[in-house]
TrEMBL record:
Signal peptide: none annotated. InterPro entries: F-box-like_dom_sf (IPR036047), F-box_dom (IPR001810), FBXL18_F-box (IPR047948), FBXL18_LRR (IPR045627), LRR_dom_sf (IPR032675). Residues 14-61 form the F-box domain. It comes from Cuculus canorus. It comes from the Eukaryota. This is F-box/LRR-repeat protein 18. GO terms for biological process: SCF-dependent proteasomal ubiquitin-dependent protein catabolic process. Pfam families: F-box-like, LRR_FBXL18.
Length: 706
């Protein structure tokens, strides 16, 4: 309707949108959600009616994050263009009833189907897959109550032809893996809790009747990501048992992401020994216990590696250069490298080294030269302190990586060494400070615009130069090496936090201002920057980074006071493209002024606030929800009482659920003993992407799933 109503104005100016070529119009229409194209836009005029049904627009239908779609729209969409759809992505559509899946049967020509996060029973899955004879790629969830014996022979025939399977497990089960006899790519996400809702301990042993042997003979990619818990470890070992007997000859990517301690067993050792003898890998990630202290990396063979993750391993820089980089001969193909928590990876050896000692710049230089095509690099959760040698600062060396798209660094790694030597941080600025009686102290006045910042010559800092050299960076994370979120996964909220690294004490407003040079920045995470005094750099980011979609701020400045609130509110007024906002700060006041500023973010969809002793104004929250029509997720974990939280949550749901089918609201006291029970009901899409804090750079190989 907007297209047609605008035609009269365009004609008066000599320009008519409908006079553009079909190629240009198709390109424009490719940015419109498919549901709008088919159900709305194509009804405006004859030309658009034809173009909206073009194969280039109907071949792939993405309903993921189309939060306005409902069951009726899906039904009408499948009825109109079901036969034209070859790839259907409904990942994370948790709000759609399970009966919606019945309409997928109209898509007879489907080749790829993603139903991760959708409600689906064994019987519905069987009925649907029985009609999809061309299916090659499938993603589903396996929930409690799943029964493989209910799958029909026609369904199993379809599964036998599936080449790619992504399976998220919420219960101990093989799921549909034994039926997929031609698998080339297997992605497994283990989200099984150790206790049931009733408090009973769960077992990782598979139920009788599910002990069919998976078929891995054609497997090329094996990926497993484990949530915390021993049951997940027990179940993944059952999946790995078959691999240890016979390693697929074509295996080229083997990745296991496991938090905490995941001990190596005789079976896994046999598997790794077999891999060292028989396969050449392109991607590798292993639990830290499997690598630490072993000579495994010396024996593994690599072909054209594109992804390595040694997260949380004690791998030294010497071993990294000798056993992985191999003198730079084989690493030009590497595009993604995760060294998060690898505290000694930039030191020649780790035996007598302290984690806070200076890095060996020659190791980082070898890494940069050898892996010159890196696009994703994660060096967070470690102390990477540069020495005083001129030209060898970590930021100066990283500036050579011109292809970087995402980067994660610890706060202490970006500080100027000379500045720290000349101006040691004052004791009054150290954080966190003891909570109690407040101490009155003067706050230095910082300039609030980029020109004044430049006059202070902050452009001479190594971090400013780094930001200037990485003009195409899309994702940046600057996280304190000792930072831990107040809201971990399956445990009570953390009440105390560790102090920041001494080297990080000088990092504050000027460094944040340097980030504003990243014109194409889409995602920004800042955590535990101690020297934030006014937050003036945030305003510069809001003005200059107009593509910013995701913003996560945690524990900035002194812990006892929200010192950057004024600057944050000024920043938000300019963030027209912001979709996800996560704030974690003690004593945060979510009041009328904050929500009024946040209302300027017209594209905002998801909001998460985590604040110990934080307060909120219910009327302000309701007004914000009423004015920001795109918001479908509101999570607040504050210091308010349970009664206040429940009343506000019920009011939001009652007022807005009907018009926002995907609405997910959780208002709950952060330190309440039942927090973990509340967290388990959060849709995985939101929990994994925004509610829980974590570093996401190089977390998985690029393009792991379509």
């Amino acid at each position: 309707q907007e297209l047609v109503s605008g035609e009269s104005e365009e004609e008066s100016n000599g320009v008519n949108l409908m006079e553009f070529s079909d190629e240009i119009l198709l390109h424009i229409l490719s940015y419109v959600p498919c549901t709008d194209l088919v159900l709305n836009v194509r009804r405006t005029c004859r030309k658009l009616a034809t173009l909206c049904l073009d194969k280039s627009l109907t071949h792939t239908v993405v309903l993921q994050k189309d939060y306005k779609v409902n069951k009726d729209k899906v039904k009408q969409l499948m009825r109109d263009i079901g036969k034209e759809i070859y790839q259907l992505n409904m990942a994370g559509c948790y709000w759609l009833p399970s009966s919606t899946i019945d309409h997928v049967t109209r898509c007879k020509n489907l080749v790829k189907l993603n139903l991760s996060g959708c409600h689906i029973t064994s019987l519905r899955l069987s009925k649907m897959l029985s009609t999809l004879q061309h299916l090659c790629s499938l993603a589903i969830d396996v929930n409690p109550g799943f029964d493989a014996s209910q799958l029909s022979s026609e369904c199993k025939a379809t599964l036998s032809r599936v080449l790619e399977l992504k399976q998220t497990l919420y219960t101990p089960s093989y799921g549909v893996v034994p039926c997929c006899t031609s698998l080339e790519k297997l992605l497994l996400y283990f989200e099984i809790l150790d206790r049931s809702r009733e408090g009973f301990m769960l077992s990782g042993q598979l139920m009788v009747g599910e002990s069919n042997v998976p078929h891995y003979q054609n497997l090329r990619v094996f990926y497993a990501r484990l949530a915390p818990g021993y049951v997940n470890q027990e179940v993944v070992r059952l999946y790995l048992a078959v691999l240890s007997d016979r390693t697929p000859e074509n295996l080229h990517a083997f990745l296991i992401s496991a938090p905490g301690s995941f001990a190596e067993t005789g079976a896994t050792k046999n598997l790794l020994d077999s891999m060292a003898r028989n396969v050449r890998l392109d991607a590798l990630q292993l639990p830290k216990a499997w690598i630490n202290g072993s000579g495994l990396l010396q024996h593994l063979k690599f072909n054209n590696p594109f992804y390595f993750s040694f997260s949380r391993c004690t791998l030294s820089g010497g071993h990294l250069i000798q056993r992985v980089i191999n003198g730079g001969k084989d690493l030009k193909s590497l595009t993604s490298l995760n060294l998060s928590g690898c505290v000694h990876c930039l030191a020649p050896e780790s035996l007598f080294r302290k984690a806070e000692d200076d890095i060996d710049s020659s190791i980082l230089e070898s890494l940069v030269v050898s892996c010159c095509n890196l696009r994703h690099l994660n060096l967070s959760a470690a102390h990477h302190h540069s020495s005083e040698s001129i030209g060898n600062h970590l930021c100066q060396l990283l500036s050579r990586l011109k292809h970087l798209l995402s980067l994660a660094l610890p706060v202490c790694s970006i500080t100027d060494v000379a500045a720290n030597v000349e101006k040691p941080p004052k004791a009054s600025n150290l954080v966190p400070q003891a909570f109690g009686k407040k101490v009155r102290m003067g706050i230095q006045t910082y300039p609030r615009n980029l020109a004044d910042q430049a006059s202070q010559k902050i452009e001479s800092s190594v971090f400013w130069a780094l930001m200037g050299s990485l003009r195409f960076l899309e994702t940046l994370e600057i996280i304190g090496s000792s930072f831990s979120s107040a809201m971990p996964r399956n445990e009570p909220a953390i009440r105390n936090s560790l102090p920041p690294c001494v080297r990080a004490q000088s990092v504050g407003d000027s460094e944040v201002a340097a980030i504003s040079q990243l014109t194409y920045l889409q995602s920004l995470t800042l955590a535990q920057l101690p020297n934030i005094l006014t937050g003036s750099g945030l305003i510069n980011i809001g003005l200059q980074c107009q593509h910013l979609r995701t913003l996560s701020l945690a524990n900035l400045g002194m812990m006892g006071k929200m010192v950057y609130m004024s600057a944050l509110m000024d920043m938000l007024k300019h963030c027209k493209c912001l979709r996800d906002l996560r704030l974690e700060q003690p004593y945060f006041c979510a009041g009328a002024q904050f929500f009024q500023a946040l209302s300027h973010c017209s594209s905002l969809q998801r909001l998460c606030i985590v604040s110990r002793s934080g307060t909120l104004q219910s009327d302000a929250v309701m007004s914000f929800m009423a004015s920001c029509l795109e918001v479908i997720m509101c999570h607040m974990f504050m210091g308010e009482s349970l009664t206040v939280c429940k009343n506000l949550q019920q009011s939001i749901v009652r007022s807005f659920q009907a018009d926002r089918p995907a609405l997910n609201v959780i208002i709950f006291p952060l330190l309440h003993e039942d927090l973990t029970e509340v967290i388990r009901d959060v849709p995985m899409r939101h929990l994994d992407e925004i509610t829980l804090f974590k570093s996401r750079v190089a977390e998985e190989p690029p393009n792991l799933w379509w």
